[in-house]
Design brief:
- 36% of the residues lie in helices and 24% in strands.
- The two termini are 22 Å apart.
- The strands form two sheets. Strands 9-8-7-10-11-14-12-13 form an eight-stranded parallel beta sheet, with helices on both faces.
- The radius of gyration is 19 Å and the shape is globular.
- The chain has helices spanning 11-17, 20-32, 103-123, 139-152, 172-176, 187-195, 236-241, 249-255, 257-264, 276-281, 300-316, and strands spanning 8-9, 44-48, 51-59, 63-71, 83-91, 97-102, 130-135, 158-165, 180-183, 198-201, 220-223, 243-246, 274-275, 292-295.
- The relative contact order is 0.17.
- Helix 2 crosses helix 3 (103-123), helix 3 (103-123) crosses helix 4 and helix 3 crosses helix 11.
- With 318 residues, the chain is α/β, with parallel strands linked by helices.
- A hairpin with a 5-residue loop joins strand 5 and strand 6.
- The protein has two domains: 8-106 and 301-316, ornithine cyclodeaminase, domain 1 (2-Layer Sandwich); 109-299, NAD(P)-binding Rossmann-like Domain (Rossmann fold, 3-Layer(aba) Sandwich), CATH 3.40.50.
- It comes from Planobispora siamensis.
Length: 318
């Protein structure tokens, strides 16, 4: 039997095959079709001399897949990304490789798709224009804006976007393009949060990036930056006020410092955490009398849900 090498899908091909809105729909479909994030294998970390391997496997009825991401802390010194990797999608029965995907591009697509899927019920409970504040100017910060814009197109207008950065002077090109960029801790940042419909946190900060007392009761907050049990972007006070959505309770209590520390400080109990599956399926009501907070850990099932959608589109349009 002739062996056919699996196709490699780089960033441009991934972007061409699946739009942000379609990625959101793939995540929602996986949950509505019965996928339970609680059954996802834990990610594992393997130390090597110059960094780490992160290994994230998962499977569905039709596919098995694994993301192998590398973390090389000193890569920035030589102009390379800190995180790189590959995603391999296999046939579920024969375990024959079906495709190789650039892991960074896949992650950049699926992470904001998961966020948008988790909070879409809250985003669509009103019809007015949406003001967005983003802490972090990297691919995830900008990616969340693009995905939210794609999902809301036709239902709600994006009234404005404000980025909050540690060094706003470094983003002169954004300012020249009419995009608001303000400094962390500046008065303008606080005013932007006070008026925001959506606040996105996609930073490497180890401490809360804003005072949650500024967050409106009808606002949506998305936090994707921290993935360690002692690191947080969101203060405990917001957990006390908000309806809190997580992908999986066990994973959040193990990996998400925002959640772990809020529980330790008595701001929330594990029983109050809402699973993303419940939010997407409409089993819980996200009323506008309290903020909605989605804390993402990033899980393997999300990669395979989006990777399957990409490869399915490739098979229809080779």
């Amino acid at each position: 039997m002739t062996h056919v090498p699996p196709p490699y899908l780089g960033p441009e091909r991934i972007t061409a095959l699946l739009s942000p809105r379609e990625a959101v729909e793939a995540v929602e479909a996986a949950l509505r079709d019965g996928l339970d994030p609680a059954g996802d294998p834990e990610r594992s970390r393997v130390d090597v001399r110059h960094g780490q391997f992160l290994i994230m496997p998962s499977e569905t009825a039709g596919s098995a897949g694994v993301k192998i991401a590398t973390v090389a802390p000193r890569n920035g010194d030589i102009g390379l990304p800190r995180i790189q990797g590959l995603y391999v999608l296999f046939d579920a029965v024969t375990l024959t490789p079906k495709a190789l995907l650039d892991a960074s591009a896949l992650t950049a697509l699926r992470t904001p798709a998961v966020s948008a899927a988790a909070v879409r019920p809250a985003l669509t409970r009103a019809a007015g224009p949406v003001s967005i504040v983003v802490f972090g100017t990297g691919p995830q910060g900008t990616g969340h804006v693009g995905t939210l814009r794609s999902v809301l197109r036709g239902s709600r207008e994006i009234a404005g976007v404000t980025y909050v950065a540690r060094r706003p002077e470094a983003y002169a090109s954004l300012r020249e393009a009419g995009v608001a960029v303000v400094g962390t801790g500046e008065r303008e940042a606080g005013e932007a949060v006070r008026g925001a419909d959506v606040v996105v946190c996609a930073t490497s900060s180890r401490v809360p990036v804003f005072d949650s007392a500024l967050v409106r009761d009808d606002a949506v907050v998305i936090a994707v930056g921290s993935h360690e049990p002692d690191v947080r972007e969101i203060d405990a006070a917001l957990f006390r006020r908000a309806r809190v959505i997580v992908e999986d309770v066990g994973t959040a209590l193990r990996e998400c410092g925002d959640v772990v520390l809020a529980v330790e400080e008595g701001a929330i109990t594990p029983e109050r955490l809402i699973t993303m599956r419940s939010a997407v399926s409409g089993q819980v009501e996200l009323a506008a009398d309290r903020p909605v907070l989605f804390k993402s850990s990033g899980m393997s099932w999300e990669d395979i849900a989006v990777a399957e959608a990409i490869v399915s589109r490739l098979e229809k349009n080779p």
